[in-house]
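I hope you will forgive my troubling you with a question about protein structure. You will find the record immediately after this paragraph.
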Amino acid sequence: MSRTAILVGCAELPEGDGDEHAVPAALTELGFGVSWAAWDDSRVDFGAADAVILRATWDYPARRGEFLDWCESVPALYNPAAVVRWNTDKSYLAELLDAGVPVVPTTLVEPGEPAKFPKSAYVVKPSVGAGSRGAARFDAGADASAHVAALHEDGHTALIQPYQSSVDTEGELALSYFGGIYSHAFAKSAMLGSTMDDSGLYLTEQLAKAEPPADAIAVAEDVLDAASALLGILRAELLYARVDLVRGADGKPLLLELELTEPSLGFRQTDPAAAMRFASAVRQQLA
C-alpha cells in the first residue's frame, strides 16, 4: 500500500541541512512516496499526507504562534502538535527537574522579573529558540542584565544555567531515539562561539560518532519516561527524540535539552541502518 510522507523544512532550508540524506530512500523502500516542503508553503496540502515529519523548521522561534497554529492544523504531524507546543519552550526543563530528572540547574526569568546570576560562569538564553541563537556565556561575577533585558524586550523569558565546564573538554552527548527505542548517539562540540551557517538559522557544530556509557543511557531513559508521563503519552508515540547530556561537576550526566520537535538526529554520524530504523518507526506510528 502506497503512503505519502512529507519531510518538513523552512523557506531557508526547504530540504533540510543534509542530515537526512539517506532517509527518503529508506522511506521509499518501505512504500512511501516522499517529498520535502517548507512548513509555511501554502501550495502544499499537508492534510493529505499520511505522515508529516518535522525536520528543519528552524525559523519558528520568531514566528512560534503562527508555527504552532500550523502544527495544530496538520492531523498526521510527527511529533504531534501538543508535543511541539510543550517542547518549543524550554520551561519544560523546570518541569522535568520537578519530576526528579537530573537536569542542568535552570532558572526562568519572566519579562519584568529581576534576574539573579550564579557566582560561577553561566549561560543566558531565550526560553524559545533554536540553534543556540540568543545564547551567551558569561564569566563568574559578570552582569548579564543587559542581555536579559534584550531578551525580555523581544518578548522572551530568559533561561539562566550554570555553565558546565565539561562541555569544553567532552562536549555534549546526544542520544537519538526512534519510536521510544534507542538508535544511536553522537558527540557535539561546544556551540557557544561557533559560526553561523549560511542560512542564518543555526550555529555550525562539530559532530562525531559516539558510544554512550551506561550512566548516560540510564539518564536518557529516565528523561524520556518522565517527559512521556508529563505529556500523558507512551514513549512509543514519539517518532523521534534526542536527549542532549553533559557531565556535571561531580561527573554525573545531566540533561541539557530534550529535543522533540525538529532536531538533527545524527544520521551522518552513525551506521547506515539508522535511516531504515527511522523509516520503520514511521510505519510503526501509522500502525
